[in-house]
Amino acid sequence: MSAKLTVDGIEYPLNTEKTLLENLESQAVKVEFHCRDGHCGACRCLLISGQPEYISYPMAYLRDGDVLTCCCTAKDDIKLATYR
Ligand code: FES
Fold it and tell me: Tens of pLDDT along 25-44?
């Protein structure tokens, strides 16, 4: 069974080789972003469950439970909520 990326209760297939932001873009999900490099925080989502793996250390301030989707992947199911 393939891994899933769930955002705001909607499931999408998860490509573990792409960032979470790239996964959302490939599914035509409208997401906020700016720098795509972990600096601005625009892509911030709330982690509901799962384990993000950061490709590079995020420079933007992260509150407990925040995920910067531009600079992390996930190897297994992960659930996020957007800050809309
Ligand atoms: S787009 Fe800037 S931190 Fe993700």
Answer: 999 988 899 999 999 999 99
> What's the CA-to-centroid distance between 1 and ligand 1, angstroms?
30
Query: Is residue 70 lining ligand 1, measured as CB closer than 6 Å?
Result: yes
Atom of ligand 1 minimally distant from the CA of 59: 3
How many domains would you assign to the chain?
1
Whether pTM > 0.90 for this model: the answer is yes
Listing DSSP states for 26-58 in one string gives HTT-----SSSSSSS-TTEEEEEES-EEESS--
Q: Residue 28 sits in which domain range?
A: 4-82
Ligand 1 atom nearest to 44, measured from its CA = 4
